[in-house]
Design brief:
Layout: E1 4-6, E2 9-14, E3 21-25, E4 33-35, E5 38-44, E6 53-57, E7 66-69, E8 72-74, E9 76-77, E10 90-94, E11 107-113, E12 116-119, E13 122-123, E14 130-136, E15 140-146, E16 149-152, E17 155-156, E18 165-171, E19 178-182, E20 185-188, E21 193-198, E22 201-202, H1 205-212, E23 281-283, E24 294-296, E25 301-304, E26 310-313, E27 321-324, E28 330-337, E29 342-352, E30 358-362, E31 381-385, H2 395-413
């Protein structure tokens, strides 16, 4: 139908015994664009084991050509239940029509790009429940899922539900349902958090990559949102999401209409700029100016990185500060590990070769000219080379002065005669 659902603000609370849904794309829908919607609450207050759904897609077609992008989805909750059909909470559910308990509806040709889904908050129900940020039904196919944030920190506080499972990703479909799935951030927290499910629980990003057979560039990093419902990203503590996405021709702006990078867009609905400084600082006292990264060959320099949890330098050092003594100009690289990813930073230490001093004599005294041997009292010109400045010292005069001072010192210490 080529319809567009965009820039809606949804805050829905339902008290009855049913499953509220924010946006539902149902049988026959095709060519739709669902973009820049702000879902801050879709919740039921029923205590009878009902959850909610943020966005559902159940078109009945394998070629739906639907794009869901740049949406802010949060506040999806209820008392929840032990299965998704009856009807535990899901941020986005593919292969599901509205609040139906059927999880096998055909839905294919669905693109999920740059959405941010945050499942948060406590709930209580007297059984072990399931919730998920993203649900994929068993009849879903031809899915393209990239640059999304899927977070679940929900918690069943009921004493009978302490082993509930709150997923970031849950797929009842085989990995063949995914035409492309990559560059996503999956994150869970708390004792009930399970990263993903595909044929079985997947508790690490490595295990999830194995399950999907893709997700090579996906990660598991805790995003720092402005709030639990405002999923804009703070300028600090989000370095694993900054410039970590992949360009998508259909997504040129973000949730706010800000232009996205055409080469390194951010993950999630918000294009932001990180202010974390990963630059390497140098400390050295060689050459004319301290701490300018220019040293004499072989002199020490201390390179210091920051804002990571661990560090690994190309020199082999594994501390934040590394001491190096390059004999020639060298670029050093450090891998800075963060929570869920790593960044690299480099610094080039420029060296100046040590001067090779030389000197020559100009004199005409003695047997041979310019051999440095002169008659007593004659003069010679000594010319030095190899440096920028020179200081001459008369070692013989200094030696005699030292001997004289030493004699005086000894004489002053001699005992007097009786």
């Amino acid at each position: 139908m080529g319809s567009t659902v965009s820039r809606n603000n949804l805050n829905l609370s339902f008290a009855g015994g049913a499953t509220p849904v924010g946006i539902s794309l149902e049988t026959g829908v095709s060519g739709a664009q669902v973009t820049r919607n702000n879902i801050t609450q879709v919740a039921t207050t029923s205590t009878a084991g009902y959850g909610s759904r943020g966005i559902t897609v159940g078109t009945g077609s394998t070629t739906s050509n639907i794009t869901i992008a740049n949406n802010n989805i949060s506040g999806v909750n209820g008392s929840n239940f032990s299965s998704f059909g009856n009807s535990s909470s899901a941020g986005i559910a593919i292969g599901v029509i509205g609040n139906s308990s059927t999880l096998t509806t055909v839905a294919g040709g669905i693109n999920l790009y740059n959405n941010s889904v945050n499942m948060s908050g406590d709930y209580s129900y007297t059984t072990n429940c399931l919730t998920t940020a993203l649900y994929i039904g068993s009849s879903a196919s031809a899915l393209d899922i990239r640059n999304n944030i899927f977070v679940n920190s929900m918690n069943n506080t009921n004493s009978s539900g302490t082993t509930s499972k709150n997923y970031a990703f849950y797929s009842a479909a085989a990995n063949t349902a995914f035409a492309n799935i990559n560059f996503n951030d999956y994150h869970v927290s708390g004792t009930q958090g399970v990263l993903g499910f595909l044929s079985s629980d997947r508790t690490t990003i490595a295990a999830l990559r194995t399950a999907t057979g893709q997700d090579v560039n996906s990660l598991s990093s805790p995003p720092s949102f402005v709030s639990s419902t405002d999923l804009h990203l703070n300028s600090t503590n989000n370095d694993c999401l900054d410039k970590r996405g992949t360009p998508i021709a259909a997504v040129t702006t973000d949730f706010d209409g800000d232009t996205r990078s055409t080469s390194t867009p951010d993950i999630g609905m918000d294009e932001f700029t990180s202010t974390t400084n990963f630059s390497i600082q140098v400390a050295e006292t060689s050459e004319l100016t301290n701490n300018d990264g220019r040293i004499c060959s072989g002199a020490p320099a201390i390179l210091t990185a920051s804002n990571g949890t661990s560090y690994l330098w190309s020199s082999g050092a594994s501390t934040a500060a590394a001491t190096v003594n390059p004999v020639s100009t060298t670029t050093y690289t450090v891998t800075i590990t963060l929570v869920g990813c790593s960044v690299t930073s480099s610094y080039t230490v420029t060296t100046t070769a040590l001067p090779v001093p030389s000197f020559s004599f100009t004199e005409t005294s003695g047997v041979l000219g310019n051999d440095g041997i002169i008659c007593v009292g004659n003069s010679a010109t000594i010319t030095a080379a190899g440096g920028n400045s020179y200081k001459y010292r008369d070692w013989e005069t200094e030696r005699k002065s030292t001997r004289l001072n030493s004699s005086h010192s000894r004489a002053s210490r001699m005992p007097s005669s009786a």
